[in-house]
Automatic annotation (TrEMBL):
InterPro entries: 2-HAD (IPR006328), HAD-like_sf (IPR036412), HAD-SF_hydro_IA (IPR006439), HAD_sf (IPR023214), S-2-haloacid_dehalogenase (IPR051540). NCBIfam families: HAD-SF-IA-v1, HAD-SF-IA-v2, HAD_type_II. GO terms for molecular function: (S)-2-haloacid dehalogenase activity. This is 2-haloacid dehalogenase. Gene3D superfamilies: 1.10.150.750, HAD superfamily/HAD-like. Its EC number is 3.8.1.2. Keywords: Hydrolase. The keyword Hydrolase applies. The keyword Amino-acid biosynthesis does not apply.
């Protein structure tokens, strides 16, 4: 069956989400080399933990996760550091090949973004992608962050589709593909960006290069 929409996670799947690089740059010499890898790993865990409650601004998510991580590792940071990291986000660019693949897909499919970004950053990031999207859904609009199932409920209700009428594409089993599977979205594509381990039991198609996506989803033109 031809999907009514192809939905995408944005940051980390389409946009090269370089938050660890930004944290290293902002903290500079305050982040010792010998603890940097563990610091960033724990920081990523705190960031997903911050996404599990009710909605708060993404600047708050970034700041709270960074503050918790710094406290655990005894690193000095303050709200200005968190703001500097947050302010870098809309400057980040797509992965190689993303713009071309999305424009090919847009000739055949209605494209949707469902992202943990906020309304402040979404327009700049979508502009950076250089491709047309029919709908852009942010965590701020949903009132929750992925991986909360309410985020996927919101997306399906907003689009007016059943779970089997959509294809969801993401590089994150943790944030996207696992909850999408839980809610009954059977058509899923995992773009392996090397950020998370492959979880094939979730029943997705796996690709290494997003340039392969248009052929994978080939169907009649819109």
């Amino acid at each position: 069956m031809e999907p009514k929409f192809v939905s995408f996670d944005m940051n980390g799947t389409l946009i090269d989400f370089r938050i660890n690089d930004a944290i290293r740059r902002v903290l500079g010499d305050r982040l010792p080399v010998d603890i940097a890898s563990d610091f960033l790993r724990v920081g990523n865990a705190y960031r997903i933990d911050e996404c599990m409650g009710e909605w708060k601004s993404f600047q708050h998510v970034v700041g709270s996760a960074l503050e918790r991580t710094a406290r655990r590792f005894g690193v000095t940071c303050d709200e200005h550091d968190a703001k500097a990291v947050y302010d870098e986000i809309p400057t980040w660019r797509p992965y190689p090949g993303v713009t071309e693949a999305l424009n090919r897909l847009a000739q055949r499919h209605a494209l949707v973004i469902v992202s943990n970004t906020d309304d402040e950053h979404a327009p700049r990031l979508v502009e950076n992608l250089g491709a047309p999207f029919d709908v852009v859904i942010t965590a701020e609009q949903m009132g929750v962050y992925k991986p909360r199932l309410r985020a996927f409920d919101y997306m399906l209700d907003r689009l007016g589709v059943a779970p089997d009428e959509i294809v969801h594409v993401s590089s994150s089993p943790k944030y996207d593909l696992r909850p999408a599977d839980d809610i009954g979205i059977t058509n899923k594509v995992y773009v392996d960006r090397g950020r998370e381990p492959d979880q094939p039991w979730l029943g997705y198609e796996r690709i290494d290069d997003i340039a392969d996506l248009p052929d994978l989803l080939a169907g009649p033109r819109r």
